[in-house]
Design goal:
Keywords: Magnesium, Metal-binding, Transferase. One of its GO terms (molecular function) is metal ion binding. Belongs to the FPP/GGPP synthase family. The protein is an all-alpha fold. Helix content is about 75%, strand content about 0%. The protein contains 16 helices and two strands. A two-stranded antiparallel ribbon has the order 1-2. A hairpin with a 2-residue loop joins strand 1 and strand 2.
Amino acid sequence: MTIQPPTEASPNGRKQDFLNALLSDDLLRVETHLEQFLSPHRKKFPDLVEHLAIYKGKRLRPALTLLSAHALQLGVLPHHHLAAAIIELIHTATLIHDDVLDEADVRRKTLTMHQRWGNKSSILLGDLLFSMAYHQASKTGDAKIGEMIGEATTRVCVGEIQQSLGSQGWELTETEYYSIIDGKTAALTECACRLAGQISRAKPEITEQLALYGRELGIAFQISDDLLDIVGDQRSTGKTLGTDLIQKKATLPILRFLQEASQSEKTLFESNLDNRMVIVELFRKVGALEQVRHVVDMHIQRAKRHLQVLPNSTFRSALEKIAEWCSVREC
């Protein structure tokens, strides 16, 4: 295969084209699984199932499983496609629940599930997707796969609970912040990569390096996303921004600002939480934005180093490029 990763940051459409060019057949199998999973429920509540389309992104987490499987060069098996679909079910469930928790109105320029159908139906639909994921994992015949998925999902829930309990002010430490994002985001990207190694029966030390790549990628992605919540453009991102500020959710950009700001700057910050233009200028003035970008780049480099155990290939290069995308998420 001669497809090469793009040399420059691409809009989401080009990123999707890149993944499709590498994984078109694989992703089609994932979509077939997802449609089969949802088909029985489409008849019972068709409008809710149709609304799930707004949560379909680049299928990044399934792509991580599939790219990792290809990069191992041990063969891509049907269980890789099944595992990738399971990971996407879990990810979609977390997005639905996140939108409820964040009180977000818009995702991909469309009303979120809870805005359209209410909190109760949204939470129950997310629960259904979680349940479907565990059900499908049980069909693999590999207890280790179920264990990995269960462990990752537990970490996601623990991270969300930690964040919810700590969202009433700015007292969170950076250590606590990292503990939260290690669960709520990195656990699933780590699991997506680890599953590829497990299904391929790769050497344990190589599977572990893949998992560590996924973990660092998830951390970089979440920090970048937290930065995007402050400096991003809602028209181009297509989702509600500024929720961390309004809900007083301590993220790394906010923690770094508070660490560097004078008392007068902190006072101005507190009185302008709903004015993102003022907030962005304050963060830029004290150097918080540049600091956080540097932290993101550090985690990107760590992620790429974990891939050095893999043979050189287009698929390893693609995993490296996905890590690099984190540094350019409209920050």
